[in-house]
Every structure is written in C-alpha cells, then in structure tokens.
C-alpha cells in the first residue's frame, strides 16, 4: 500500500515538475496529441521501477528524426505527435525495464524560422519555438497596425494557404482561428477590407471589418452588444451616400424569425451604426391600440386643461396601467398570456395573466416590477370561444387549457336577468359536423361538473332568454302560455287565446299572481268591462300571471278553491313544455 501511494505522489511530483519547467521555458501546457515532433525537440524520459526507484534522462531528436535510448537504441519519432512518440519509446524501453512505468514529456521545444509580412509593426523573419501560435508571432512582430485586416490573415504553408479570421479568436476565443505555426510558414497580414463603424452605447465601439454576407447582428456581436444604457429603438445606420436608416434593435433581438430577419439589415462598406442612450421608458407592443414607447417620469405631466400628457406614465406603474396608457388591448389581443420581456436578456420573460388580476382581483402584479427598457408584449389570441345570448358582455374570449363554461361566463360578466337559468347550449364542430350539448346554466355557474363542461378551441356558448310568459287557461279557444309584453291588458291576452268559449263565465274570471312570495287571486267581472265599458277593470297583466276563465256552472267565489285546483293542474302540465 505504501509503495502504491509513493508511486502516486511520485507521478504527481514529476508532472508538477514538468509543468513548472514548461512554465519557465515556454509558458504553455501543450496538447500531446497535437504537438508534432521534429529535429531539435528535447524529450525527457522517466522510468519508474517496481522498487519505486526513478531514473530520468533527456534525449534530443536528431536531424534525421531519431532519438537514442539506453539499451533500446535508436527510435524514429519524426512527425509523430508527442503522445505517439511516448507510446513508442515506452514500448521499446519496457523490453529492458519490465514492470516499470515510462513517462515521456517535452523538456524543451525546438526553435524554428518563420516569416511575417504585411500590416504588422515589425515585419520580418523570427525564430520562434515550435509551440508558438499565430497570436504569439503577431505579438512578437509588435502587433497589428490599425490598417490591418483581422478577418483574412493568410498563412502560406508549402503549397497551401490557410485563411484565418483572427477576430474570432480575439472576440470569441475560437482557438481554431489561432493555429500553431509550423517551420517555414509565411504569414501575410493584408490591409483591412470592407469595414463599418460602430458608435455609441455598445460595449466596444470602433471600426470593424466585415466579410461578404455579414449583417447588422454580426457586427453588433463583434462590438460586444449593447450596454445597459443602449436603446433598442434609438439606433441609426448612416451610409456614405447620406441615407439614414432607423434601426429596430428590439425586433433584431426579440422578434420572431421573420422580424429578426427583416431587422437584420445587410451592411455596406463605410456604414456607421450609432446606438443612442436609452431614455427611461418601457415599450408596449403587440395587440394594443397604440403600440410604442411610454416614457417613465417621476410625476405625470398635465396640460393646461388638466389632461395627462400622452406617452407618459409614472415610475413604478403597473403592467395593467401601462397597457391602458397604450390604449388598451385590442379585441383579438390576449389578456391571459401577456409577456414582460426583461431588457438585455432575450431569454428572460415573465408571463402575466391580467385576467386573474383585473377580473378575479388577485394581486399578483404587486410582485412584478417593470423597469426602464423592459418590453410589454400583448400576443394575439390563439385559442378562443364565442359567447352569445343573455350574457352581460357577449363576444369572443381567450381560452386557456382547462377552462370550463363557468370560467368563460365569468369573463363575459355573468348572465343577464333575462337569461334562462336552465337551458344553455354548447355548440362544437366534431368530425366536420356541428354537435350541440345542452347544459343547465345554474349548475354550470355553480361548478357542477356534469353541466360545467370543459371547452375546446372554436366552441360557441349560447345562453337563451328566459321565456317571459302569461298563462291563459279555462274557457278560451286556445288555452296556452303566451309571451309576456309589458303594458298588455287582460282582454288582450284573452284575445290572443282565441277569445272566449260559449260556456265561459265572464263574471268570475280570476287572475292568479305571485306577490311578495304569496299567491293572490284577483277576481274580475268581465261583464262590467264588455257591457258597461268599465276599462278600469281591464287590469294590466304581469309576467307569470295566470288568467283563468271558469265555466258557467261554477257558483260563487266560494268555489275559488276548485278554480285554483284546475289552474295548478293545468300549470303542472304546461311547466315542462314552457320551461317556467
């Protein structure tokens, strides 16, 4: 156990020693799978024996590409990676040092000659180590001139030319754009090609070279993006011919694919992009009456008539208040899925359900703060139902998953006084055919599941009108329930019922009426109305009154119980039919 621990610690020590030496000699830790060996490289070989005794020695790669090992002799390593050479050397040495560990590392890289020309401060031929990269050589040559191209540096290597986008390494750390240099390479830095200028509220203002096909978003990314003070709606692009284009950076970063593409303008050499500082404002966009910016101020200003200045809101205004400032949500705008998009973070958005706040009275909005630069976006309604008939606010309403009849009736303001409490209809298209489901309105409002049906996109809810009726029974030609109309008199309803029969007893007509929860019987002598013109006895009939005309054999008001019995018997027969 002690031997194993000792071996582990020894290995750690050897690696630490190696890295420390690398730091002293060339300041880098190389990738053994990428470093290619050549003449002049010095390797260090460690042999850790079973007894924990460690031997080490250095070997130099000869001009012909060989290293000479004790006992094992010459081993060719030319153009091998350091990792491959280590395996080959270990294989040969283990023939003579069985049950040992062999570690091969680069003690010191070879030097080589390269040439760099073009737009560098000190062009020339330089001796560099074999682990130097393009970035190392450029720094050795004093750096690039301001006129240098960062996008199209060329490395001539034999018959090949490598084109390097050095800016991608500087801005984004793309190591593929900072290749290792090989012996004999000729580096050429040309003059800057097409370029644009980026000014104002970006993190790294300056002049940026552009390649064919690069657009506005590419250059803004090169400049580090907008600062916290940059305005998404306050940016311009000026062309050398004097043309000015107002830029919509909000759509560029936050819009859907079509809007992003439209806002991502193609650039021309000489363009100047300017991003202005953000005024303290928020943006209310989408399906509102007046989309656009709203300035946030400490105190909302008013004009001489005392009317608030448009386009302003108080600091700390709620989402609902800001939407109201934008003219309110359009009929096809969503109340349930409003987005609060946080400035500077395209992926950070909060979904706000204003229905829960404005209709149900919940105070969720208290926890949601709107800050300058934020965007409130009202999307369109994607799923909806239609509510018709006897509701307070008929119309089209947004449908959220799980919504039922009760939820939508609440959105529609509830049912009217004239609404039927029993008969509602849900119309739905299923398999291309219209299907109608009947439901009890009262049960649905109370949330009883069998009537409070779950809704689907495209459904139509219809709440019928409560039938306002008057019942004309007894000795008339057409006894039935008739539509009530305010102001109609007794004789009018009897006329609607086809008039009186021959055996009608005009002197003992009865009107049965509900008053304050009690049933009252009003006796009417129609002989007085018809024969003596006493129109004051032709009383106005009220909703739900029952007019009963008895036969002549009924004698005296003492038989009123018999009259009522007949009335209620007929009424019980009519109730299921007329829905009273």
TrEMBL record:
Pfam families from the UniProt entry: Poly_export, SLBB
UniProtKB keywords: Signal
Cited InterPro entries: Poly_export, Poly_export_N, Soluble_ligand-bd
Any one GO molecular-function label of the UniProt entry: polysaccharide transmembrane transporter activity
SUPFAM superfamilies attached to this UniProt entry: Nqo1 middle domain-like
Stretches that traverse the bilayer: none
Span of the signal peptide: none
Protein name as annotated: Polysaccharide export protein
Soluble ligand binding domain boundaries: 114-158, 196-243, 314-345, 385-433, 470-517
Positions of the Polysaccharide export protein N-terminal domain: 32-105
Keyword Lipid biosynthesis carried by entry: no
Superkingdom classification of source: Bacteria
């Amino acid at each position: 156990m002690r031997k194993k621990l000792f071996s582990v610690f020894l290995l750690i020590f050897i690696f630490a020693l190696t890295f420390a030496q690398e730091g002293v000699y060339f300041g880098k830790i190389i990738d053994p799978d990428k470093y290619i060996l050549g003449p002049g490289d010095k390797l260090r070989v460690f042999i850790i024996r079973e007894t924990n005794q460690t031997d080490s020695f250095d070997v130099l790669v000869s001009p012909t590409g060989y290293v000479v090992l004790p006992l094992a002799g010459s081993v060719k390593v030319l153009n091998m990676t350091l990792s491959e050479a280590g395996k080959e050397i270990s294989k040969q040495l283990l023939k003579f040092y069985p049950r040992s560990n062999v570690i091969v590392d680069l003690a010191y890289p070879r030097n080589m000659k390269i040439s760099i020309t073009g737009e560098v401060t000190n062009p020339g031929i330089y001796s560099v180590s074999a682990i130097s990269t393009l970035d190392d050589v450029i720094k050795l040559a004093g750096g690039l001139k301001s006129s240098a191209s960062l996008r199209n540096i060329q490395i001539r290597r034999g018959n090949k030319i490598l084109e390097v986008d050095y800016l991608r390494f500087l801005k984004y750390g793309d190591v593929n754009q900072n290749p290792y240099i090989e012996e004999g390479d000729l580096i050429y830095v040309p003059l800057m090609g097409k370029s644009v200028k980026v000014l104002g509220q970006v993190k790294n203002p300056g002049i940026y070279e552009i390649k064919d096909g690069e657009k506005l978003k590419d250059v803004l990314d090169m400049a580090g993006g907008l600062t916290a003070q940059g305005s998404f709606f306050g940016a311009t692009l000026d062309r050398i011919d004097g043309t000015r284009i107002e830029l919509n950076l909000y759509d560029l970063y936050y819009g859907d694919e079509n809007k992003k593409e439209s806002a991502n303008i193609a650039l021309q050499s000489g363009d100047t992009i300017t991003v202005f500082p953000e005024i303290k404002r928020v943006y209310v966009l989408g399906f509102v009456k007046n989309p656009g910016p709203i300035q946030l101020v400490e105190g909302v200003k008013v004009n001489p008539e005392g009317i608030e200045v448009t386009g302003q809101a108080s600091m700390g205004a709620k989402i609902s208040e800001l939407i109201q400032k934008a003219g309110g949500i359009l009929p096809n705008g969503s109340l349930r899925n409003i987005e609060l998009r946080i400035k500077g973070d395209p992926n950070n958005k909060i979904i706000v359900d204003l229905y829960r706040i404005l209709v149900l009275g919940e105070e969720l909005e208290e926890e949601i703060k709107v800050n300058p630069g934020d965007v409130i976006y009202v999307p369109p309604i994607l799923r909806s139902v239609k509510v018709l008939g006897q509701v307070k606010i008929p119309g089209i309403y947004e449908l959220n998953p799980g919504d039922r009849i009760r939820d939508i009736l609440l959105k529609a303001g509830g049912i009217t006084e004239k609404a039927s409490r029993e008969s509602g209809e849900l119309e739905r298209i299923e398999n291309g055919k219209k299907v109608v489901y009947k439901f009890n309105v009262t049960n649905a409002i109370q949330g009883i599941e069998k009537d409070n049906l779950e809704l689907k996109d495209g459904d139509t809810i219809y709440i019928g009108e409560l039938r306002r009726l008057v019942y004309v029974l007894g000795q008339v030609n057409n006894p039935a329930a008739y539509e009530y109309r305010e102001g109609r008199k007794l004789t009018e309803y009897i006329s609607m019922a086809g008039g009186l029969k021959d055996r009608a007893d005009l002197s003992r007509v009865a009107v049965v009426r509900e008053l304050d929860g009690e049933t009252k019987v009003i006796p009417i002598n129609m002989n007085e109305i018809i024969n003596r013109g006493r129109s004051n006895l032709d009383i106005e009939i009220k909703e739900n009154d029952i007019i009963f005309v008895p036969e002549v054999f009924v004698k005296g008001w003492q038989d009123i119980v018999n009259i009522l019995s007949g009335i209620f018997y007929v009424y019980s027969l009519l109730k299921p039919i007329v829905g009273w």
